[in-house]
Amino acid sequence: YNFPKSGAHAPEFFNGLLEEAVAAFREALGERKRERVPLRWAETQVNLGGVLATLGERTRDPETLSPARDALAAAWAVFQKAGYRQYDLYMLRRLPELDQLKYDLGGATR
Questions:
Q1: How many C-beta atoms lie closer than 10 Å to residue 30's C-beta?
Q2: pTM of the predicted model over 0.70
């Protein structure tokens, strides 16, 4: 990649990279099926949710935040079922942050 040093095109460039990452994680989910490899699927969902959240925060787009939250919540459910508690604190903080940001941007009602 030819990274822009600064200027007006830098935000669009980095948002484009995030969109490429979203596409890659969604493609990976086609291979990592929840029924077959639930923990790998959940890890990929966390990555997808994180990238979508970052993209939604950067673009101030509430419609990007919903799938971010959904991906994180779905992954957390799998981790909880498997007894993996290392995501609990992150999810307990991050999910309400996404809800609040979406609300602040006019994308949801409380």
A1: 7
A2: yes
Q: How far apart are CA 107 and CA 55, in angstroms?
A: 15
CB atoms closer than 10 angstroms to residue 87: 18
Euclidean distance between CA atoms 29 and 31, whole angstroms: 5
Question: Tell me: the pLDDT tens digits for 82-105?
Answer: 999 999 999 999 999 999 999 999
Q: In the structure encoding, which two tokens stand for residue 89, read together?
A: 């604190």
Cα separation, 9 vs 11, in Å, equals 6
37 residue type, one letter: V
What pLDDT does 8 receive? 53
Q: Which two tokens stand for residue 66?
A: 């919903």
Integer Rg of the chain from CA: 15
Given a contact cutoff of 8 angstroms between Cβ atoms, the answer to whether 64 and 52 are in contact is yes
